[in-house]
Amino acid sequence: MLKNITQSSIVVLDQDEALDFYVNKLGLELNTDQDLGFMRWLTVNVPGDPSRQILLEKPGPPAMDEATAAQVRELVTKGAMGGWLCISTDDAQKSYETLKARGVEITDEPTEKPYGVDFGIRDPFGNAIRIGKLNAPAGE
C-alpha cells in the first residue's frame, strides 16, 4: 500500500537563510523554489536523490493561523521546538571536517556507535541534524 516518504518538513524562521545553510554549508541541492501565492514552497534534497525532499517551512498559513505561527516562532527561537533530520554519508569523519571548516555549529564530534559512526550539528534555527556512516544491516 504505502511505498516511500517523498517529502517531510522542518521549521525555519527565514527561508533565504535556510536555503543558504542547507545548500551552501550542508551541501544539499535546491529542488523546488516556487511562490504559491499563499506560501513559498522551498525544498531541498540530498544531491542526486530528488525523490526525498525536505520542505524548509516558515511558520504561517496555510498550515497555521498567525497567532499559532507566532507561538511556533517563539518556541523555535528558544530552541524548544527544533526538528530532527538524519543524513547518511560515506565518510563521517570527512563530512565532519568539511562542515566544521564551513562554520557549521557542531553539537558533538564523530563517535562510534553500535549502528555506525555519526556526529551532530544544528541549523541556524535550532533543528538537530545527525550525519553518519551507518553499518550495513546484519546479513548483508
TrEMBL record:
Q: Any idea where the VOC domain is?
A: 1-134
Q: Which PROSITE patterns match?
A: VOC
Q: In its UniProt entry, what is this protein called? A: VOC family protein
Which residue spans adopt a coiled-coil conformation according to this UniProt entry? none
Domain of life here? Bacteria
What is the organism field in this record? Pseudonocardia yunnanensis
